[in-house]
Specification:
This protein is an alpha+beta fold. The protein contains 14 helices and 10 strands.
Length: 503
Amino acid sequence: MSENQNQPLTTASGIPYYYHEDSQSVGARGPLLLQDFILHEKMAHFNRERIPERVVHAKGSGAFGTFTVTHDITRYTRAKIFNQVGKQTRVFTRFSTVGGEKGSADTERDPRGFAVKFYTEEGNWDLVGNNTPIFFIKDPKKFSDFIHTQKRDPYTNCKSTTMMFDFWSLNPESLHQIMFLFSDRGTPYGYRHMHGFGSHTFSFINDKNERHWVKFHFKSLQGIRNFTLEESVKMKGEDPDFAQRDLLQSIDNKAFPQWALKIQLMTEEQAKSYRYNPFDLTKTWSQKEFPLIDVGVMELNENPRNYFADVEQAAFAPAHVVDGVSYSPDKMLQGRILSYPDAHRYRLGANYEQLPVNRCPYAINNYERDGAMRIDGNGGSSPNYFPNSFDNIKPDPAYQQAPWELDSNVAAHFDRNGEGENDHYSQPGIFYREVLSAEDKQHLVHNFVSAMKGIDGPRKEDIINRQLCHFFRADIGLGMAIAQGLGVNLEQAMPQKHTPQSA
């Protein structure tokens, strides 16, 4: 049929029909007939158009593109994606706000999700992180409690500054991340002008089965650009979809955004003696001690033809690593290995990896069968069990994983703030003193003061003073500036049993 020829309107099962706008009824003004299945189909499908939105990262934008290897790192990893300088791999990248609902403004103060799906010849590799190298917590048992504070109060059904700072003030491990969040990095100018991080510690394994711990950094080649608090609030009202529109239009206009992928590496021996737990998600690795190593460039150059099909149904999981890339003892990573695929099976169904945006474009051989929305032929008449006498699918010993040498054989509930794990102030202090410019410091204080003025209720003073104690312990100048901005008596706010660092 030619493109200019009319094509018949059909049902979802391909049956042509005519009455798309008029329902069957008994007479012009009588009741409708149960037999009008077109009416049922249209209404039933409409009722199901909205799949459950993501509990976190609900509002997002995405695009396809390419990753190109620019530097040789084969001595560190045998992953085939990196096996040749100049090699290109197709990618899909999704950016998102973390705490906002699907209809929220994408200029809100919030971390930004930064997730990349690499379609490699050895399976899909999902590198799922944020625009910050750290996070609010370091044990996955705390995740649901934390996210509840970022959502809506169960009584008012409104966002609550009191809930947020109550939680943060009771969890000093959050300080490093909220310093990032309340700097202007918490309100990036769209998605093109921010860095991305794998955040967790992962591992590289080379062809000799040697392991290095690794952190991933995506550096924006557009340069960093952020909104101030006032600019972000203004844009929230003018265009709540600013970041989505900015990314879409830049690609439509062929101003393709790019990020340089760099890595930090740490040997297993270095990890044993590093002054911080290298697997603690609330900590960074010093770039002076573990300098960035160039790997390649990611370019986004193709907008999805349909937002729902690709961006909304995209499913990323830190569990999805390829040969030559592996996990680490990072407790938050270990928790996400379980929770992300579980969330996708709930939201999209057991066969979510068959959806085009999630499907591996290379060979898939397994014995998974059935389930809702099976769309790939379900294995046809081939066996659905292993071992069997009828096919030639065999486990390949070349993909055996290198064993881990564990430091302990004790299983227990270890205190996440125990000895050696309880320095929550050194790195936030370094971030304030050494990373932020004088203007950035002013904005950080202004942003904290503006937010904390929203704390209310009978425990207002307790929450504010607890949080101020954390600021003082990170840097006395920071604590004084925020306390003064809030009009708090400094003698009451100063910690009594801890000598703060000098500015």
